[in-house]
Design goal:
Order of helices and strands: HHEEH
Structural class: mainly alpha
Number of domains: 2
Low-confidence stretches: none
Strand order of the largest sheet: 1-2
Organism: Novispirillum itersonii
Distance between the termini: 123 Å
Mean pLDDT: 81
Oligomer: single chain
Number of helices: 3
Radius of gyration: 40 Å
Strand content: under 5%
Largest sheet: 2 strands, antiparallel
Protein name: Cell division protein FtsL
Number of strands: 2
Keywords: Membrane, Transmembrane, Transmembrane helix
C-alpha cells in the first residue's frame, strides 16, 4: 500500500511542476512582448533619423531662398528699398492717400530718425497732424 507521505509528495511535485510551467509561459509571453516593443522602438528611431535628415534638407537656406524666389516672387531687400516712415504717403480723413514731400537730409548727413521706438505710435501721431 502506498503511504500517505508518498501521495503528499506526488501531489506537491505535480503542483510545483504545473506552477513552473505556467510561470515559464508567462515569461515567454513577456519576452515576446518586449521583443516587439524593442523592434518598434528601433523602427521609430530609424524613422526619426530619416525625418530629421529630410527636415535638414528642406530647411537649407539656399533651397528656401530659391523656393521663395520661384514660388513667392520674393527677392532680397536692397538698401534703396528701405525708407523712413515720414517718406510714406499718409491717408487723409476720407481714406485717400495724401502725398507728403519727402524729407531729404543734407548731403553727407544721415537721415534723422524719430525719437519714437513704436512705429504704430509714430504713425498715429502723423495721422493726427492732418
Amino acid at each position: 500500500m502506498i503511504r500517505g507521505t508518498t501521495i503528499l509528495w506526488g501531489i506537491l511535485v505535480l503542483l510545483v511542476s504545473t506552477a513552473m510551467f505556467l510561470m515559464k509561459m508567462q515569461v515567454q509571453t513577456l519576452e515576446d512582448t518586449l521583443a516587439k516593443v524593442n523592434r518598434a522602438t528601433r523602427q521609430d528611431r530609424e524613422a526619426i533619423r530619416v525625418l530629421e535628415a529630410e527636415w535638414a534638407y528642406l530647411n537649407t537656406p539656399v533651397r528656401l531662398s530659391e523656393q521663395s524666389r520661384r514660388l513667392l516672387s520674393m527677392e532680397p531687400l536692397d538698401a534703396d528699398t528701405i525708407v523712413a516712415l515720414a517718406d510714406l504717403p499718409m491717408r487723409g480723413k476720407t481714406g485717400t492717400m495724401v502725398a507728403r514731400a519727402p524729407q531729404t537730409p543734407a548731403p553727407g548727413k544721415p537721415r534723422p530718425r524719430s525719437a519714437s521706438a513704436d512705429p504704430q505710435a509714430e504713425l498715429a501721431s502723423l495721422e493726427g497732424d492732418q
